[in-house]
Amino acid sequence: MKKIISIALCVAFLLVCSPFSVAGYNIDSNGVIDQSEALNSYDKLQAYFGYPDDWFDENAWPATYGGCYLDNTDLVLCFTDLNDEIKKQYTEICGENIKFKEVTNTYNDLVNAVNLMVDNPDKLSCKGLHIGLDTENNVVDVKVSDISAVESIYELCKSIKNSKDGLFRITEDENAGQSQYTSYSCSDGSVINNVVSAYFSLGVWAYRAGQLGFITCGHPFWTDYYTTFDTNAVNVYYGNNQQNLLMGTTASYLSKVGLTYYDYTFVPVTSSWVGTNSCYNGYTIDSVYSSNPLQSQVVYGCGAIGGTWYGEIAYNNSVSILYSTVTQAYEMELTSTNGIQFGDSGCPIYFTQNGEHKLLSFQSAMRDDHHGYSTRADLTFTRLGATLFT
């Protein structure tokens, strides 16, 4: 199992501090939905499984396991062959705060179906797909830009059980594959602000190789929407125009791993004023969470434009394919009425567990309905080698 990295860091955003009510949730005086017991049960489950190094590991899960998700504050475990022995075994592993559900498809089959589509986009007869792993409904949710692609999906995945009978939920969406990231590039002089910004949000402070800087989203610095990055130094300012204070310049190691984007970059701070600026003040995040989030897990964000918002993880992994380019992220369905706005990209996504606030990912993009996608935080820090600033 990946270990939770216990570190403290400050991020520049505000937490809603007044109580509010959401039907069916346990909410404390700080307006935080408490799913701690279910998440603790999930941590025990992952420890028992020996969490795979990669979510895409094939056949890494027990043979009858069908995945898990959160139902309000309960962890629901799914199995294709549910019996009293399995219930007893996993209750001993996870504790009493769990439910069981019998399903048709194994988690291995669901993951392997996603693998086949991600690895073989040239064999699918449409230009765009969006793939989400829906463990609550025990299906691979697929949106295709052309419904005629259905038969090519069935053909590609014919070796997997139930490939034509319950493995997929396929619908047509002419924008499939295109909504994962905002498609714009910022010129020299792009603006950042941790409270009000017209462009993107300050993420988290970090040291990399002894250099103080901050991690934020990467897509404002992509010169080609799908394939290339601006390797030249781009100035980043604190404020809403180039007359505001220069914070630093982008580094050349912008994020790309194979065909998969992890939408972040590290910006070294080059200006001495930053060390004493009030933008260091913020809400404390206690640690970084390295496991995958659960479907229906409640998460929070606070962007430069949209302010504080919260919602649920819609799919624990969401994959888009457009013209053989693959992007991967978590997909969030927002519950709060104030949705993600343009300019919120780069803000941290976090959740609570046992009274601690844990960094999960960074805001990456939004759909037209202001629901959002975020990129993995644990991969960010692993690949950048950053020690978070305290």
Enter the CATH topology name of the domain at 108-172.
Answer: GMP Synthetase, Chain A, domain 3
- The termini sit apart by 26 Å
Q: Please write the string of helix (H) and strand (E) elements.
A: EHEEHEHEEHEEEEEEEEEEEEEEEEEHE
Number of strands: 24
**Which sequence of strands runs across the widest sheet?**
18-19-20-23-22-21
- Shape category: globular
In which range does the helix fraction lie?
10-25%
* Global mean pLDDT: 75
Helix-strand makeup class: mainly beta
The CATH architecture name of the domain at 108-172 reads 2-Layer Sandwich
Which regions have little confidence, pLDDT < 50, spanning 5+ residues? Answer: 1-29, 179-191, 193-198
What is the level 1 CATH name of the domain at 108-172?
Alpha Beta
Q: How would you sum up the major sheet?
A: 6 strands, antiparallel, barrel
Radius of gyration, in Å, reads 21 Å
Question: Please, could you describe this protein's structure?
Answer:
The structure is a single chain. With 390 residues, this protein is mainly beta. The chain has a domain at 108-172: 2-Layer Sandwich (GMP Synthetase, Chain A, domain 3), CATH 3.30.300. It has five helices and 24 strands. The strands form five sheets. The chain has a six-stranded antiparallel beta barrel. A four-stranded mixed beta sheet has the order 9-8-12-13, with no helix packed on it. Strands 15-11-10-24 form a four-stranded antiparallel beta sheet, covered by helices on one side. A hairpin with a 4-residue loop joins strand 5 and strand 6 (139-144). The longest helix has 14 residues, at 36-49. The protein is globular. Residues 1-29, 179-191 and 193-198 have low confidence and may be disordered.
